[in-house]
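Allow me, if you will, to draw on your knowledge of protein folds for a short while. I have a record of one protein: its chain in single-letter code and its fold written as discrete structure tokens. Kindly check, if you would, that the fold set down in the tokens agrees with what the sequence suggests. Thank you for your consideration; the sequence and its tokens are set out here:
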Amino acid sequence: MTKFSDLALDPRVLQAVADAGYETPTPIQAQAIPHALEGKDVLGIAQTGTGKTASFVLPMITMLANGRARARMPRSLVLCPTRELAAQVAENFETYTKYLKLTKALLIGGVSFGEQDKLIDRGVDVLIATPGRLLDHFERGKLLLTGVQIMVVDEADRMLDMGFIPDIERIFSLTPFTRQTFFYSATMAPEIERITNAFLHSPARIEIARQATASETIEQQLIAIKPTRKDRGFAEKRAVLRALVKQEGDACTNAIIFCNRKMDVDVVAKSLKQHGFNAAPIHGDLDQSVRTKTLDGFRDGSLHLLVASDVAARGLDIPAVSHVFNFDVPTHPEDYVHRIGRTGRAGRAGKAYTIAVPADDKYVSAIEGLLKKPIPAGPVPEYEASAEREGDSGRRPRPERRAPRHDAPPRPVADHHQVAAMQPLPEVEARVVEVAEAAPEQPRRRERHTERREERPEERRNEQRRRPAESRHNDDRVMGMGDHMPDFLTRSFVPQASQE
């Protein structure tokens, strides 16, 4: 049987591994570490929970033990799809570099740029980042990737699901062509295959288990229910979930409950807390400090039930999870494998329950097609949907509409004089009277318009025809000129007829 001491690792790394309590490597570690130490690219395909993180962390530390990092130019780069997975990888480096003077930096969202810039400016041997935050630092001119010697892409299929593949391709183009690349994924989609062919050079392909297979130590059960009403399906699923947790009793030391949508994560967590369960939500919309605090509480046992979206389905090393509950059937069959892979890790026994309604039949069929076997059906526990507390449905109740009564007498309508009498305004009325008395009497505009309309246009034209031409031209009245009128304007330039 292969031991870590047989893998040509640095003695200081072996000491740290022994301090962590490990002696025998997992299959992917035993096969990947020798190829990595030889400087080859590694393409690792293994299901979640098989020790993929240590399979690239240990050889990286050994190869980086000698050397020095320069400012803003990390020597190695590890890309992770989520903040939690990146933080977990950073913890692994912290554990296995306790006897080495290697520096690291963690670039994830939810943390100020200033603190991360200070770490990068001092120079780091290992840079662990999510793709988005890494490109943010690069575009701000705070980071150079031309000194990267080793590059790791962890959970590549999750990167594909989250839409990070264009970012991954751009990051690859910013690193040197001579880098060593480790590429790990639980499944090999066509897009992942294309990237490995483009950026890996004759990699050592290591496939530990058939793609997307579940561990044999996990007991799976499908709980199929038929809601009494269509609009009660969400509430009855919560009732079934509570019944399952109670049914397991003390055997359920802790559990992860997966939902498809973030908003449902909050609703289910709130429902469980209202019914006396120790539960908390975690999803991508929460602040990083809240997510970290929640995970720490789940790891140390102070939190019993973790209600999560798929952000917690990949790569998180929580070895003592006894149960997994799929509150929603995942729409992608691969996600089912990753979800239930949170339990039954490192040879431990685990249970995975999946609650399904008739609308989930097509998703269940896809999962069973991927697993090449049906999910065993389990008995539906006794539950009472009416036990839901008021306000626990998670949805705003619609206002009740009442039909108008035809026999009801019409409501009396108050006259406007009565309304005015009910709300007198004495001060306003007094001011109006005072203003009216103080204002001088002015002719009304309507009367002036009436006077103008009385003089018809035909009468004005006849008046002008009766006036002689000379009088029309020599008239002293010139409209619009005022009293100071130039003399030449009063002269007539019409030629006089001869007196013969």
